[in-house]
Amino acid sequence: MDNERTVKVSRYLAKHLRHRPELIGLAPDAAGWVAIDALIAAAAAHGFRFTREDLDHVVATNDKQRFAIEGGRIRASQGHSIDVDLALPAAAPPRYLYHGTVARCLDAIRAEGLRPMKRHDVHLSPDRGTAARVGSRRGRPVVLPVDAAAMHRDGHVLRVSANGVWLTATVPPRYLRFPSGTGPA
Question: Which residues, in sequence order, are CB contacts of 40 under 8 Å at separation 6+?
Fold first, then answer.
């Protein structure tokens, strides 16, 4: 399976496991799981064919480990806009986590903090490099350190997905560290 096909299947999975399963007749369970056989059949019925081997390759080689397979089922690890309960337990985070964004979003972030927007949770990265890669999808990245230890101490719930992405409902501005010259007014 070449890289172009791997990316195409990965994007298809993300769309239908995270956001629009109903478009191909899927009904994930409460935790976001769907039967692999049902997924492959539904995709084929809607003109997008891939094999179990293709699926296994995409899951195994995805650099962000976006998908999990368990007992003949698959789900997205996080990033859903559909209603799911990933059943991730609260966890004590490291001192700092990081969020990648772009400069045009900083004014809103200064005023409102980080919000989940169309997703269930705010996504935080365990390191600056990952956050920079996330932010670069929208332009030149700005990496914001998040005082995760203080959030945890103050009662905010943080959870970590199987692929190492940290999730929380919101990040109020007081826990963010803005680059010099761009901080809260």
Answer: 50, 51, 52, 55
